[in-house]
Amino acid sequence: MIFLATALAFSISFSEGSIFLITSSSCINNLYFCLLFNLMELLEERKNARIYRSSPWHIYELKFPDLNKDEKEFVELFSRALLKKYSARELEILFIKDKEEEAFVNRIYELLSQIGDTSIQKLSDEKEEEIRQKISRFVKQNISNLEHPYELSDLLFHEIVGLSRIDYLLEDDTLEEIMINSHKKPVFVYDKKYGLCKTNILFDSAEELLALVERIASYVNKDLNKDKPLLDARLPDGSRVNATIAPASPMGATLTIRKFGRSSLSITQLIKNKTISPVAAAFLWMAVEGLSICPLNMLIAGGTSSGKTTTLNALTVFIPEKERIISIEDTLELNLHDRENWVQLEARYGPYEKELSLNDLLKNALRMRADRIIVGEVRGEEAETMFTAMDIGQQGMMGTMHANSAKEAIIRLQSPPMAVPKAMFSLLDLIVMQHRMKLPGQGVVRRLTEICEVSLMDEQVLLNNLFSFDRQDFSLKRTSIPSQSVEKWATLTGKTKADISKEISNRARLLNSMAEKAIFDYPAIRKVINAYLSDPSSVSDLNPS
To answer: What is the pTM of this model?
Structure first.
């Protein structure tokens, strides 16, 4: 519906008799893009896209099928019929003179009737295959010169069931966000590897973009009109959608999609790409698992897009299998894969709904017999509730927060709206700092830069910097400062501090070996970890099978 016209603009350019609302200027721009792609450096080719070097943004080119004339005309009419939802009689009056075309439009509506209302729904494999077969038969019966049956059927499937070209962006796991600022401007995406990119996707009219937004609103059964111009919704794949229409956005509809991470970086991948060192990862393994006696309370802090949530998610692999986990988030991002004893709670905000805050959910989680509570992002009154939970014996609490240094994190925690009393800071064991930085020859990377222990002495909050960032080789290294956590683990387990240090070294070697052997899968890592904790000698060959 929405993007078939736009997509084909790049391939049909100056085609005669087009029923699309394509101006000559947009055709020239599309031709310009095509010529420009041939001059730019290709950075990467993917299944459905190419990434080109450009400034100030790289270009994300979604590949469009090279349809022949008959296929283009077929798609044009199909797209128009879906977008306007004209009856066959209305289509005849408006722009159809040929009775054969009128009959074709009738067959379109007959096909839609057979498929039923499946817009934006998450389909079973059987149902999806059934719909695809019906579309495929329809395509073969209605185009005499058919050269691209699969590509054409796939286009129509996403038009009818999904979000048209947006579906192809949602399928690209390297994309984090999709941003549509206006029907007059190209769609932007945020790529994990290349940052913000401008795409070759354009809308032909304000009506097309509005139709897409209204389709999402209809799926979530929410009103979207001039009295309620804001929309917050979730797609079937878990992606979070925010949309606005006039009068909130006077220039027309906007759409922002924050993708749900179907795949997230594991701890061994973070080691492999040098986000964290093996020794630091092993120390955090000890902190999360706590030798089954004393897991530590920690916050991962950093700036926007520094990778805080990714690191938090990676560290959850160290949570013992037997524990019940409750995660609390503004927007569902954590992915603990096949954890069976895990409950996800999500806050609800919005101008038209009763608020359900992180603090409400955190208070409720304390009544859910949770062994482990994870707060996606701490930024308000839930901070004091989190520290109160630590005070009554909740161990191993984890979360993220915005701060540019460990010292700034302490200041923010003490200040409104978090307002944690200074006397409670001894309950927080660790602050882990992570930053987004640009390194020579590597581009934009994420790096852990500090791991600090927190203590309280004479009403002063002290930070014990255990790991610091070495700017010579851009890595996180252990300092010579003694660790109070190591001393605590030694006391509670009856071991010496040397024994604990040796255990950290052994775990560091294990993690580094898994990274070198490309054991990146979350369940596979957890299987090795469980085997190691049960019998360290059983994983000497690091075979997760």
So the answer is: 0.78
